[in-house]
Structures are given as C-alpha cells and as structure tokens.
Amino acid sequence: MNKRTIVSAAVLAAFTATLPLGAMAAPDLKVALIAGKTGVLEAYAKETETGFMMGLEYLTGGKMEINGRKLKVIVKDDQSKPDLGRTLLAEAYGDDKVDIAVGTTSSGSAIAMLPVAAEYKKVLIIEPAVADAITGDKWNRYIFRTARNSMQDALSAAATLKGGSVAFLAQDYAFGKDAIKAGKEALAATGSKAKVVHEEYAPQTATDFTASAQRIFAALKDKPQPRVLGIVWAGPSPMNKIADMQPGRYGIALAPGGNILPVMKTWRNYAGTEGTIYYYYDFPKNKMNDWFVAEHKKRFKAPPDMFTAGGFAAASAVVTALKKAGSGDTEKLIAAMEGMDFETPKGKMSFRKQDHQAMQSMYHFRIKKTQKDEWDLLELVREIPASELPVPVRNKR
C-alpha cells in the first residue's frame, strides 16, 4: 500500500465517522410470513398473504420502509403440517435472521411453532389460527395474536342468543372441538338461558350429512324454542346440505359462523338467516377499510375477505410495533406491544397485556333478502364491541 492509498483510506474513514447515522445504510428489517399455502386451508393462506402485503404497502405509503430501514418479507409454506411449521420458523429465526415472524393458518401448526419462538427468543404474531390454547396453556411471552380466538367467536355468537335450545355441528378435530367447548362456556359466561342439547362432530372430509342432521333434528325438535343449530366449519360449509333437509319443519333455525365470501355466496337463498363473523368488507366504516376495499376490488375484481383483513391486521401490528420499538430488538418489541393499540380495517385492536390476545369487535349479520351483486350478501345487525366480549385469561403468566 503506497502513501497516497494510506492517506485516502484515512480521509474516507474520517469522513464516514462524521456522517449522521441515517446517512449510512441500515440493515433491512426482516419479517417471515408462514402460511399453509398448500393443502386444505390454501384459500385462507393466500388471502392472509394478500392482506399482509397490502397492509404493509398502505402503512408504509408504498415505500416498504420503517424508520428509514427497508422491510423485507420472507414467505414460507408450511402446508398446514405442524412438523414443517416448526422447522420453517426455526429456519426463519436461525438462518434468515428475521426480526419478527407471522403465522400460521392451521392451529395445529401454530401450536407447534410456539416453543420455537421461546427457544429463539423472537416475537411470533399468530394470524389466523384461532385455537384458545395459543394464548392459553401453550402460550409464552413471545407470542402475540391478531387473529380472533375460539372464545371470541363463541362469545359473539352467544351474545345473539337469549334463550331456547342449541345444538352444534362441527368438524371432528381440534378446531371443531375447541370451538364447541368455547361455545358452551360462552353461553354460561354471557348469562344466556339457552341450553346446549346436542353436539355433533363429523369428519373434516364429510360430504353426506344425512345421519348427522337426523340426530340433530331428533335432539332439538321437542326442545324449548327458539331452536338453533350452530354450524362451526372450516372450509366448504355444510349449511346448504343441512338446509336442504328442511330443519324449519321442526322450528330449527340455522346459525352459521362467518366464512369466506366464495362459501357465503352459496347461502344467498337463505335470506334472513343470522350468524356472527370476524369481518365483512361492508361493515367497518373507516379510512383504512375504504382504501382496502377499493384497492382490493381494483386489483382482484372482488372485495377483501375475512382472512385478507386478518393479514392486514397482522401487518399493522408489525409496522406499529417496529415503529414504536425503534428497532427489531425482541425485548423492545415486547415492551412496545404489550397493551399496544393498532389500527386495522376493522378499527382499533389492542394487545391485552396478560396474554397478548388482540381484543377486537365482532359482527352480528343477517343474510340479505335483496342483493345488488354477487358480493352483496350480508347486512349488519349489530357490531359487538370488545367490551361486551369477556374473553377469559387462560395462560399461566
């Protein structure tokens, strides 16, 4: 190295030292999104990814930057398999060095991922898995959830029932059993006088519901009115097939849980049927949702769906947390996120400090009699505020 080279290097070093911190390129902020893009929950996962990316776009003004640092998103498909979900999250934290992770679609896979977040001491935002155990007995301090949980679904449904008799139809696996357990607890928690008279569990792959319906009708038909059949189902709903068996002849009303728009389109012949839902594009009235609906319609020729809204909510939690923490440091993120309010297409959500569950409103809907177009499906009966949903704290913090 000659004398001129030495002098030039010294001058460059001195100049660099005098630069303001913002003038030097800061490392990218990295976020992993894990979703079950292959398998039975594929439609939900794709909606989540779309909503997540649209949320980041909106919240960063299209720059994909937070506090001057580029935001990089790494998407991984866990195929809704718990072992793969666990492996991909470890890969995201260990190899990809992500600052924060979001996922996943299946509750089984999400539960498998929880200990990985604790092992790597990194934040994991759960979206859209709903099992109560995630913020209950399987929870750890690195877990936050923007998705609603089974109890929030159940409490919102219970808020619409004042008495009478209830039967449930659900899928025979963790999601279905968790939801019905929550449903029974919710009726008790809200002081409803409705009595659960039957629980029916069918295989996830069931297509013939004749035997199930006969057992349900037999259990309900002589019980006190109103007689309600609550249907809790992930994927293509059996509501049409149950309705074809004419439960109305026994005075039985169907009460479906909200589903994705392509499924609810098949319900348009059941005007007047009521249920509850996490999100329907026409219900929230705020600037963020206005942009979301208009932009989604422009890009995809259809309004955003409930899992799209969930992805957007997770993006809002990520952006709000990283801005508030001022870095991707885990302890700073946790401190910022506990009790944190953040805006979503549904309105404000808040991470409860005790278990990091996002407290949020839900919606009581009725299927419309007059529908203007293929997506004009539901009318709002009432927004059920978070204050009316007494979600119990179930972790051991």
UniProtKB/TrEMBL annotation:
Residues spanning the signal sequence: 1-25
InterPro entries: BCAA_transport, Leu-bd, Peripla_BP_I
Keywords of this entry: Signal
Pfam families named in the record: Peripla_BP_6 (PF13458)
Domain of life: Bacteria
Leucine-binding protein domain: residues covered: 29-370
CDD domains, sorted: PBP1_SBP-like (cd06328)
Family note: Belongs to the leucine-binding protein family.
Name of this protein: Substrate-binding domain-containing protein
Organism field: Massilia agrisoli
